[in-house]
Structure to design on (206 residues):
């Protein structure tokens, strides 16, 4: 049996995170690896309610409130979904996690990393993803991909400079070994080949 692993998907809005979830699901399934797929903000009933508030364009919140709500949802997610699954030997694949707070509330909005790091330690107590797939793409490419499809949420509506800061903040974090930076400007096949090779490495790291 493969030891349980925690994988997160990160990147700016429209970078392509959700597009590859099904590929990852099938890749793991083909190897008989049992996995839980989840997302942030969200992943629990309370977390999904908070997600609704956080993404709603009606919501007004101070920077610290926004950050605290993200971590409140994350605490619930860790307690009720992520830690129990890992303890039961299941892999966990989360569409966004704490790197998104460093990127959006930190890089995007200007909350100091040191404040976010306090909350990271509070809720994670040392737990970190084993692999973070960072889908990196120029903000204008991501915006063009999204524009055709949907109404934009509270973060997606931010101006181009905001998304550029979010991207830079992600890339600045990606020096840690758990990160795989994936050039998401390419076609799906090229991206999936990269994802598969990183997953393979994770399986072999047993
Ligand atoms: N490599 C790619 N080539 C072409 N189109 C892509 C690529 N990756 C994603 N797209 C398209 O871009 C759009 C956004 O992709 P997706 O929803 O996966 O992004 P996301 O990172 O999950 O965004 P969000 O953060 O808003 O959830 C989708 O319409 C998707 O089909
Ligand atoms: Mg998505």
């Amino acid at each position: 049996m493969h030891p349980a692993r925690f994988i997160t998907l990160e990147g700016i809005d429209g970078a392509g995170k959700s597009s590859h979830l099904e590929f990852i699901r099938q890749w793991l399934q083909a190897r008989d690896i049992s996995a839980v797929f989840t997302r942030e903000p969200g992943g629990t009933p309370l977390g999904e309610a908070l997600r609704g508030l956080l993404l709603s364009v009606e919501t007004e919140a101070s920077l610290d409130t926004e950050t605290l709500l993200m971590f409140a949802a994350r605490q619930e997610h860790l307690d009720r979904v992520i830690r129990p699954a890992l303890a039961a030997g299941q892999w966990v694949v989360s569409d966004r996690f704490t790197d998104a707070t460093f990127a959006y509330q930190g890089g995007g909005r200007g909350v100091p990393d040191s404040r976010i790091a306090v909350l990271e330690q509070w809720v994670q107590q040392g737990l970190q993803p084993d692999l973070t797939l960072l889908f990196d793409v120029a903000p204008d490419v991501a915006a063009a991909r999204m524009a055709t499809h949907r109404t934009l949420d509270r973060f997606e509506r931010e101006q181009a400079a905001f998304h550029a800061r979010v991207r830079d903040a992600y890339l600045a974090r990606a020096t840690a070994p758990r990160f795989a930076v994936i050039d998401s400007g390419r076609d799906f096949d090229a991206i999936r080949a990269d994802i598969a090779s990183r997953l393979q490495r994770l399986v072999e790291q047993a």
